[in-house]
Amino acid sequence: MKKVLVLGGGTAGVETAIFLKKEGFDVELVSDRDFFYIYPISIWIPTGEVGLDSISIPLKDLSESHGFKVTVDEVERISASDMKVYLKNSGERSDFDYLVIALGQSKIKHEGIEHTLSICGSPQEALKIRERIEDLIKIGKGKIAFGFGGNPRAKEAVRGGPVFEILFNTHNYLKKLGIRDNFELIFFAPMEKPGARLGEKALKMLDRMFNKMGIKRFTGKKIKRFTQNSVVFEDGSSVEADLILFTPGGTGHPVIKNSDLPQTEAGFIKIEDSCQVVGFENIYAAGDVVSIEGPEWKAKQGHLAEVMGRNIAHNIAVKEGIKSGEPKGYKEHINIFCLMDMGNGGGLAYRSENKALLIPLPVIGHYLKKGWGVYYKLSKLGKIPRIPGM
Ligand SMILES: Cc1cc2nc3c(=O)[nH]c(=O)nc-3n(C[C@H](O)[C@H](O)[C@H](O)COP(=O)(O)OP(=O)(O)OC[C@H]3O[C@@H](n4cnc5c(N)ncnc54)[C@H](O)[C@@H]3O)c2cc1C
């Protein structure tokens, strides 16, 4: 049986490994973490609703459930032209027939970024956010700035949803503690209309929520740099804060940028609709590491990363003659599907070629997302059946 080496143990890598095993391949997954970190439900770490354990799945457990091998190691270099991968501890690897790259993305490094923390970073960074919020709660007052940036070279590499989610959750957490009035919550972003890709209805709803929650906004101002306690904009103005929670625009993973893989200006891998890397017969890539093609509002999301993973397993199986059928593409699956949590409810945002919907889900929205988290963990481990598309 042909061997597939999957690089990355996140949303795309795990889904690819599970489905490659279903097709009968010999699969080894390499990850620098020994657990799968479920980003969408990490938004409750800052307010202490969840700990790391409840939003992670040990890769060992996934390996036992699905039968793929796991190697915990760091990918240092990829040489696509001679099908070699270099790992920090295990050294050079070329003992595979197919390579799947699912290493995720990196973030743009603004001047003074070390003075900020992001919910879209490492699990340790999310814990640090929690610690800093708790420190301010102990003092009893504070000023917290929440923001996100973009990448002009890759407009789809923006992660605004989780920033709105931790902002609204923090508001509701402070309210529950009865100290919201002692805190100033600020939102900043360089775009004129942050969140616009969700559609006009979502923008209006966000606007109403900001007003209702008393959150000050600084939008349409390009960020120049950060200092320990301020965000400095290009027009010379600035915003002071005790804590700055900022998620920069995404950029290519350093391993990809330093490789011979075909890539965009921003360092994202160029792929065909089938997820095959352009010009490389036996190399595929999935998830945040790739450049996606589609409508102006396109976004990189977990469900798309999973579709890519499943398609890769199918497409390699078809190529190997294990099954019949046509190769499957990712482009027809581009949409935005997001249950945005607010701590005391939520909103279901959906965007496709013909529709832009935002359905407010007071109270129930929060519990739906909580329920999804439980379902996701159990279904990944094969303990309950998967619902198609979720
Ligand atoms: C806070 C947050 C909330 C989100 N909420 C939603 C949501 O509600 N809905 C939705 O659809 N999407 C959401 N997303 C987006 C979604 O999580 C991503 O699109 C998805 O995780 C991408 O999967 P990936 O496998 O490409 O990358 P990742 O999940 O980032 O996985 C990359 C993996 O590669 C590993 N890795 C990286 N570098 C190396 C290396 N050098 N060597 C070995 N291993 C390495 C990492 O440890 C990680 O396991 C959210 C993202 C964030 C950050």
UniProtKB/TrEMBL annotation:
Cofactors that this protein relies on: FAD
Catalytic activity: 3,4-dihydroxybenzoate + 2 bromide + 2 NADPH + 2 O2 + 5 H(+) = 3,5-dibromobenzene-1,2-diol + CO2 + 2 NADP(+) + 4 H2O; 3,4-dihydroxybenzoate + bromide + NADPH + O2 + 2 H(+) = 3-bromo-4,5-dihydroxybenzoate + NADP(+) + 2 H2O; 3-bromo-4-hydroxybenzoate + bromide + NADPH + O2 + 3 H(+) = 2,4-dibromophenol + CO2 + NADP(+) + 2 H2O; 2 bromide + 4-hydroxybenzoate + 2 NADPH + 2 O2 + 5 H(+) = 2,4-dibromophenol + CO2 + 2 NADP(+) + 4 H2O
Domain FAD/NAD(P)-binding: 2-292
Gene3D superfamilies given in the database record: 3.50.50.100
UniProt KW keywords: FAD, Flavoprotein, NADP, Oxidoreductase
EC number(s) recorded for this UniProt protein: 1.14.19.55
GO molecular function terms noted in the UniProt entry: oxidoreductase activity
Domain of life: Bacteria
SUPFAM superfamilies: FAD/NAD(P)-binding domain
UniProt cross-references to PANTHER family, sorted A to Z: FAD-DEPENDENT PYRIDINE NUCLEOTIDE-DISULPHIDE OXIDOREDUCTASE, PTHR43755
Sequence similarity: Belongs to the FMO family.
Name this polypeptide is given: 4-hydroxybenzoate brominase (decarboxylating)
Lineage of the species this protein comes from: Bacteria, Pseudomonadati, Aquificota, Aquificia, Aquificales
